[in-house]
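ping. complex inputs:
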Amino acid sequence: MKDTVKPFLTHHEDLVLDVQYDYYGRQLATCSADQHLKVFDLDAESSSWILNDSWKAHDSTIVKVDFANPEFGHLLLSISYDRTLKIWEERFEEPAGSGRRWRRLCTIADSHGPLYDACFMPSHLGLGVGTIGSDGKLRIYCSLDPANLKSWTLVHEIDVLNSSVASHLQSDFSLSWCPSRFSGEKLVVSALDQAYIYYKDEADNKFHQGVVLPEHNGLIRSVSWAPSMGRSYHLIATACKDGFMRIFKLVEKRDNEFEIDLLASFNDHRGEVWKVSWNLTGTILSSCGDDGQIRLYKSNYANNFQCMSVISAHS
Amino acid sequence: MSHESEKSLDRPAERAPDRPLSSSPSAMFVMDHHRRSSGQFSRMAFNIYGLSTNTSPNPSSSSVSHAVPASSLSILPSSASVSKHHAESNKTRLHTVNEILTCAKSNETPNLFVVGGPKALQLVKVAASEISVEYDLVAPNAGSRSNKYGLVADAKFGYQQYGRNIAISTLSGSIHVYNLDRGTRVRSTFSDHQRAVNSIDFNPLSPHTLLSGSQDGKMKIWDLRTKNTKAQLTIRGNSDAVRCVQFSPRTARNFCSIADSGVIQKWDLRKPSAFERKLNAHTGPGLTLDWHPELDYLISGGRDKQLQVWNMGPGSDHQREPDHVINTAGAVSKASWCRGRGNGSVLTTDVATCFLNDDPCIQIWSLARKHVPKNVIELHTNQVTGLVWKTPRYLVSASKDKTLVQHDVSTEPRLVDTLPTMAAAWDSQAGARLTFVSQDRNQFEETEELVPSEPYHPTSPNLVAKARPALPRQPSQFQRAVRSPYALQADIPIPDNDTDVFRFLSSNYLVQVPDGMDLLQVCDYNASVAAAAGRYRDCQVWKTIEGSILWEENDKVVQGLQEFHLEERDGAVRTESRSSLNNSDHLSTSVDSYDGGLNRDGRFGLTANANENENAIVDDDDECSGHATRAIEIKRASDSLARHTFSFTGTSVDLDNEKLQLSGSPHSKYRSKKLSMTQMASLSSSPAKSLRLLPKEVPVSKEPATPWNPVDLVRQAAVYSSTQGDATMCATLALLFGKRYPQALSELECQDWILTYHDLLQRRCLFAVSANVLKTAAMQYELFTKIGQSQTSFRLFCQHCNTPILNEHSKNMWLQDPEIEFGFWYCDRCGKTQGGCIYCNEPAKGACVVLERCGHKGHFGCLRTWFVDNMEDCCPGCGTECVR
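pong. complex structure:
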């Protein structure tokens, strides 16, 4: 595993919009505006990615893929601007590259507008998916019967926006689950230029809106909740069209009260920030900008985040 | 297109208010003359607000209209009562009373449109800044006379001398032709079709010819010159309903039709008995087609959600595949080439489409980019039914939401610009590896350059070609040169990123105190593991912790001596607070007593200077064979106080972010004890911060805390490691010291670290280690007992029927009657027992041992006899070597 994987052609015919590793880091899924999903297998010997399968999964731009925790099976979700959420399962009996290797388990088309983000729940909460689309509704689906992954139940439907987005305006939505097992079920949801914490109140088993993540001056492109790594507080990063990447500190008080602080904000990309994501231990934050660079941020011991490196691709 | 030409195209629109129907003022006059007593021709120019006053209660409309004598204009019962303008900068909107089912543009009169709805037909003027109803051909609320039409299916304007003619077709199967010069009276009615007439078209080159296509599968040609209401020609395609017909804009004798079978047929009027060319285009009903205004191309759309572009030029007759295919999100109900731009390439001609599904958006596609529409325009709240390019800049759309909208397309943002150009993901296995895709937004635009097609590999070169047969493609076809994005992988050069080191450390660290060792030995052992892995800092941390535990243990012995030593301090440290004196003393005394002799000046320290790390470790490696008590080097440091460096503070400076420089050099900081103590305070600011944030404050021990007491050391080491993302260290510390020093590490932290570590181990498939971690953690925390019990599962597959052995049936029986034997050594489904013990061949019920290499299982006792007593090294069943 020492040798790095060489750059490889994805053979997508349009923008690749999301890349995800599976739990073991042995598969890589890419989704693209060309309506195709591709899954690559890591060949350990040559340490290269070999196409597992490629298939037309949606009728429009696919914006997000995500692997489920393997304890639930070999599942992949994809969402698209065609308003559907699809869940796929790998069938090992089908040959690689046949276009049939991933079977669609279900299609969920509840949204009244394009879907923008979806994530599997952290595995300790069970098998579930949160989605948000341009109708401004956060929907949470659960698979209540592990024997039948084709049936998904809409468990929660929450209006994040009071009304649908004005059609002529650009919009963006994003969500990220709180990965900590020691904290209640909660997630951060961004809708247009607002981001909120939603938490599940054990008393009535419903999601409620918590604090607002302040200071955004444009569409929020991406939110990411950091793995807790023993911290007594949470870290949430947001990427915003206003050019800033922000890191927030969320402290849980008693009874679902939250206190939010802006820890740091960076506009190093000198342009729109598209995506933020934390590494597995929640210690390094990556941000992708319109300048084609990835910046990595890490906090020093005094909790000051600093840019530790800049990655860019040269062809 | 240039701005200049755009302007010139728009100019008629600007002129329009003066003469609304500029091509035929006389016509208006005639109408005026007949129908209207006041006869003031110029009043026709009034905008729609005037017309609206009669019926509209809308105050804003009436306020505009007060200048106009409303009565003078009420020549016709106008349906424009709700026409209203929106102040949206790039669009103009007209609200009508009825749903709009079709709309068409006049070919000869600029800005004149016809809008057809159920029982209504209106002439509409679409000017640059407003849309107004000219007059009603069929008023929506005019009694029974107009009801004969039923629903309008299609409407078209004629060309040239027939430019003032409008033909409409209805779902009831009739076609009505109006001549605008003759007012609202129907010029002629054709009702030969048996069923709904879905589509009609005038021939642009032979303007008296009208074509109709009907649900009854027939297409008919009508001649407007004759009074005859019989069709001049009837063409039978096949039995399929014809959805759309259109004359070729270049040859008067050709037209195309698309039918419910998805087939496009090209016809020649000279040979009406058989089609000239047949294209098996769509799988499922074809819904629309449109000839390219300048080039020999045809675009078609169907229920199969595809847009197809066909080359209709000479020499393309053999072609069976479309030149371009665009997969859209919905059944394509209308597709329309952008007209008037004239730049001579299909790749650069925009196509506006609308859909049959519940998404009332309009998409504009450019063939240069087949996957992402150029624009997605949301104008309507209900299905879009009409789509007409007024100019290349203005698109007019009609919808069932009762609006007609003119939209300035040039102001629309490109959809591609709202998509990110980068995608990145952290490797879920390696510590700091990132895969990302960096791409240029425009790299996917096709250009005119075509490269001859290679044998078509739709996927990756990694795939062997034979795995997927190359699609047969026409030699005339080309594969477009589109640069596919690369995925790149970046390894972040930080120490945690080494998978091998992680594996080594996690497999070798002791996470509990095994029999025959004590905690000190475990620390020492872990230090040697860290050293072997090249993790010298971690090694030093372990050693330091070991030393401090040692001190803690010995401290009790020498407590009584403290006071005595305090008296003996030298002058340099007299100014210090008592506690700090105490602290330093603790160290010296403990070290002294450990060394066995009492040293008078008490200048002993733990040398953990980073510079000396390597030496120290080399020493350790030599003597690391298990006896831990001697491992920490105690050096005599009597010469200067500067030698008093405390590794934990040192480490936290040294180990922390290299970029962070504390003011002043470390050396000066440690010059005196006093400084080192203040330093200590400042350095601990970060852990202190996190401490403060803990829900439950870490209780401070009653004794004055010394910097090197193990509680603080363990805490610092763990907190530091957690900020570095070193889950191995955190979790190992938590497992070893979590219960021993509860004031150092809170339960929550420990559990979180262990969970993270466990998760990482699982991700890296180090299942044995993770099981061990889980086992150890389960002894300390309830949570892990639960995880261990609920998340560890084995599935056995029946060796006969190859299905999972569930045995639910017999389990239920067993639950009712515990006398029944229950287990997983048989299969309910096929009723057979699984293979027995590999040694004695009895059924292996209950706990048994499975050989990892070959999968054979056996009783524990049997296998012990085989391997231990008989000293065999291979499986008793298959001979696979199991013991090495």
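Chain B touches chain A through 97 residues (CB under 8 Å).
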